[in-house]
Design a protein that fits this description.
The protein has 722 residues and is α+β, with helices and mostly antiparallel strands. Helices cover 31% and strands 25% of the residues. It has 17 helices and 25 strands. The strands form five sheets. The chain has a five-stranded antiparallel β-sheet, with helices on both faces. The protein has a five-stranded antiparallel β-sheet with strand order 7-6-10-9-8, with helices on both faces. The chain has a five-stranded antiparallel β-sheet with strand order 11-20-19-16-17, with helices on one face. Strand 16 (490-492) and strand 17 form a beta hairpin. Helix 10 (323-360) packs parallel to helix 11 and helix 11 packs antiparallel against helix 12. The longest helix is centred in the middle third of the chain and has 38 residues, at 323-360. It is elongated, with a radius of gyration of 36 Å. It starts with 11 loop residues before the first helix and ends with a strand. The model is unreliable at 1-9, 21-58, 454-458 and 686-690 (pLDDT under 50).
């Protein structure tokens, strides 16, 4: 039969075999076990045509083809390095594995069969007939057609190649758990069980100091454990803290003579003598067959060096550790300790940014609006926590501000910008500025932060960040909204109809001067029972669908929220329904259900700017307060307050005057609007000064007061306790 691969063949097995210079036919004697196999000879393999190129002693590549039942159909493992492996056509591939590895490898093989996605470069041990083992780098490749099964590519790992491949695999993630798991999988090549225990400070991202580890005082938490199987009761598994006495023993063992060093406890008797208590034995010894253990500290070099944790490799009694193997273990752990420290630093930054973002999340709504929010950070393989933020807070004049933003980038630079913009927006809105005016200030702030000399961080730019601000008036039941390049919010009316709020597009914050445009304020009706959804693009961006389709899906999901549903549960449900399984950006959603004031809790009067306006205002307000059964002292204070504010409006402004009284919670909110543009200022006047006394009276009668600006003028508001 032809000994060269067919030009039309495209299977992974054929391509690997072509690289080997050998080809095993698809059918015939090679595809089925021969009589010797049937009699139990599991070390024989089908004969193949001679090929001088494959007889080189440095050949390290081999291939095995499996069917859908994970049985071997073809194999090409004739290089001397693979001699003695328990691999034969017709037998299950897992027969060549150590028993403890069978569940994990079987799961990975079936996963490749089901998904068609290759699993590349796993460090794996194969069992020889004489009881020894061969370390290989195993890749699982799907066939071109599902019915052709799988191809398993094997690279025999020479010592230096094994160390290089292990270090490469360990450095691919900044997640502490994944980094520790990769290290444990690599260490398994030298033993039957491998575990990695890390100092608790590494998990939290804190700095690990030698002073904190003095005299063996170290708290360890299990970060990784392989293989994946059922463990005895009491044995420490990933995520569990080691018992304090176990942590102390391990620390004292590897920190002898004030220097970190690897140790080997050679047999079961010595293990029992060192560990002592049965409780520590149950926590650290993986099973009755485990006899010897090598403990290697993860040392971070520096002045002075510190121990990040301990790696443990357990073996059976019939496989004692050789000196050369211990050197290999020490070299591998030493090479990869800095990856653990990088993951620790990333965890610290991730924790700081996440704490800042969660601090910015709205806590509660109030009597006039119900708030719920969900923040879901990026998946571990992404670039880190981003700059998404949402906030909602009551304004002193009774309105509620709803803000959502998305700062460009990830990490501490984005988090610092996010925090600054959020606090600046809150301060400006609380001072009475309109949404468009607030965005103008934020636009300037982003430009200043990007300046090379005064910016937050070298190499970081927040240009192009987006923000959307909505102000809800619970009296008029209107939303005033401004947007800087942000995706439009979704508003669901009380009858369940959802629509995107039409907002004029804007290039975002910090745009180039030629692209800058004035920010607009859009006003929308939001009657009681309306539901507003503010979000960032991570919720609607999915590689599988367009962003427009993602927004439509969001609108449909929000429209299905029932008025009686818990808003927080509804928000979580919307996020779980829409967010991609492996998100590459933060997901943020803010839901706001409009309630507003009851009709009987507000009253508005419109008066001409004449000298009799204060008297008319007092008369109408007095009648309302009697209807509300307000206390006499409160009624007197409110009448005096209204008189002073209306008098100032008549004296310093023109046009009609609007008086509004709101009964809210434990206080009364009084508003007087006029067409003037002067800002009332509280000053320290003398007894002979003719002006400023009215504001002194207002200041003493109220718990708080302020000014907000409108399109036609200003509104002076003040709150009095009932």
């Amino acid at each position: 039969m032809d000994s060269t691969p067919s030009p039309s063949s495209s299977s992974a097995f054929d391509m690997v075999s072509s690289a080997l210079g050998r080809y095993i036919p698809r059918v015939g004697a090679a595809a089925a076990p021969d009589p010797a196999d049937a009699q139990g000879d599991r070390t024989t393999r089908p004969r193949v045509p001679d090929n001088p190129a494959a007889s080189r002693q440095d050949q390290i590549l081999g291939a095995v083809n499996l069917d859908k039942d994970l049985r071997i159909t073809r194999c090409n493992l004739d290089a001397p390095v693979f001699a003695g492996l328990d691999v034969v056509a017709g037998s299950p591939f897992v027969d060549s594995l150590p028993p403890g590895d069978v569940p994990t490898v079987t799961r990975r093989l079936r996963q490749v069969l089901e998904t068609g996605e290759a699993h590349v470069a796993r460090i794996q041990r194969l069992r020889r007939g004489d009881g020894s083992e061969l370390v290989v780098s195993m890749s699982i490749l799907p066939a071109a057609l599902p019915h052709e099964g799988l191809t398993v590519s094997l690279i025999a790992m020479a010592r230096r190649l094994h160390l290089y491949a292990a270090e490469t695999a360990i450095g691919t993630s900044l997640d502490i758990g994944e980094t520790a798991q990769s290290l444990a999988q690599s260490l398994l090549a030298w033993g039957d069980v491998a575990a990695v225990d890390l100092d608790f400070a590494v998990w939290t991202g804190e700095g690990v100091t030698r002073q904190g580890q003095g005299q063996g005082h170290i708290r360890l938490r299990r970060a990784a454990l392989v293989p994946d199987r059922a463990w005895p009761e009491g044995y420490v598994t990933p995520g569990d803290d080691l018992p304090s006495d176990a942590s102390r023993l391990l620390a004292q063992a590897v920190l002898r003579d004030d220097a970190a060093q690897a140790i080997v406890i050679p047999d079961r008797e010595a293990v029992e003598r060192v560990l002592g208590s049965p409780r520590v034995m149950r926590a650290l010894v993986p099973g009755d067959r485990s006899a010897g253990v090598a403990c290697i500290p993860l040392v971070l070099d520096g002045p002075p060096s510190v121990v990040l944790g301990v790696a443990e490799v357990w073996r059976r009694a019939d496989r004692p550790f050789r000196d050369s193997e211990l050197l290999d273990l020490q070299e591998l752990v030493a090479r990869t300790a800095h990856h653990v420290d990088l993951a620790r630093q990333h965890q610290r930054e991730h924790t700081q940014v996440l704490a800042l973002q969660r601090r910015l999340l709205p806590r509660t709504g109030g009597d006039t609006i119900e708030i719920a929010s969900v923040y879901q950070p990026t998946t571990p393989d992404s670039a880190g926590v981003g700059g998404d933020w949402v906030n909602s807070f009551p304004l002193p004049d009774g309105r509620t501000a709803l803000v959502v933003g998305d700062v460009v980038g990830h990490g501490l630079g984005a988090a610092a910008t996010m925090g600054q913009l959020s606090m600046e927006a809150r301060a400006l809105l609380s001072a009475g500025l309109a949404p468009d005016e607030v965005l103008e200030h934020l636009d300037k702030t982003v430009t200043l932060l990007d300046d090379a000399e005064s910016g937050l961080a070298a190499g970081y730019s927040a240009l192009g960040s987006t923000c959307c601000i909505a102000l809800y008036d619970p009296v008029s039941h209107h939303l005033a909204l401004s947007s800087a390049g942000h995706l439009p919010p979704v508003l669901v009316s009380p009858d369940g109809h959802a629509r995107l709020l039409a907002v004029r597009p804007h290039p975002g914050l910090g745009a180039e001067f030629a692209l800058r445009e004035p920010f607009d304020v859009h006003t929308f009706g939001a009657p009681p029972g309306s539901l507003l959804a503010l979000f960032t693009d991570g919720l609607v961006e999915d590689p599988a669908v367009s962003i427009d389709e993602g927004i439509v899906r969001l609108a449909d999901a929000v429209s299905r929220v029932h008025p009686w549903d818990s808003l927080q549960q509804a928000a979580r449900h919307v996020v779980s329904e829409l967010a991609p399984a492996r998100q590459r950006d933060d997901v943020t959603l803010l839901l706001a259900r409009m309630i507003g004031y009851r009709k009987g809790d507000t009253a508005t009067w419109r008066l001409p700017a004449r000298d009799d306006a204060p008297a008319r205002a007092r008369s109408q307000v007095s009648a309302l307060l009697q209807k509300w059964r307000t206390r006499d002292d409160t009624r007197d204070n409110v009448l005096l307050l209204v008189s002073e504010l209306v008098t100032n409006a008549v004296r310093f402004a023109a046009g009609p005057i609007t008086v509004r009284l709101i009964r809210a919670g434990h206080g009364l909110l009084c508003e007087v609007g006029d067409t003037g543009n002067g800002r009332p200022c509280l000053s320290r006047g003398s007894l002979l000064d003719d002006g400023g006394r009215g504001l002194q009276v207002v200041h003493r009668l109220t718990t708080r007061w302020g000014v907000r600006w409108t399109d036609s003028g200003k509104v002076v508001w003040a709150e009095v306790e009932r």
